[in-house]
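Entry type: protein chain
Record version: 2
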Amino acid sequence: MTTPKRSLLKIILLGDSGYVYKKFRAQYKATIGADFVTKELQIDDNLVTLQIWDTAGQERFQSLGVAFYRGADCCILVFDVNVVKSFETLQMWHQDFLKQLDPSNPESFPFVLIGNKVDVDGGNSRVVSEKTARDWCEAKGNIPYFETSAKEDYNVEDAFLKVAHISLHTHPINIWPLDEEMPSHCDLERVPESISGVDQPRGGCAC
């Protein structure tokens, strides 16, 4: 009988602000000045915890660079289908993420694109079509794409399940038995550097 396991994944969310907060309670981490929320998902026999770091679309977080992106297992790019500028800035967020993270194989690093707020005005206010978004994803190596409404909780769960699946299948993931306490972000003695995402020496914490 297989022993149930649980995994911790670090997810970076970039782009349109306010996506995650509609659904999950935010926790402020003074370590780097950004918010993160956690979401647990059941995948097969394993419990997967997504630690989602959200810049809320603020470009000032770009100055955090490597310290913010380090150890990411997946990047969620979000835009508002009713605001063309939020779509146009996706290219900047995508390029900056890969530049700062500098993964060994950038072509295969997992991204998920989310077109949010499809519920607004019954879709009449929409300015970015689904085809336009899917064409962008295809040009980036067939990035998975989801249309969602965080307000109405439409397609949100499916998007996060996809994030978890592609993260687990792309990277070697740190796994803990269910009966063992999983380390928190600040428990740097136990959290591998690849997960902690904070440029701190072992045993120290800036929280």
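Comment: The mean pLDDT is 74.
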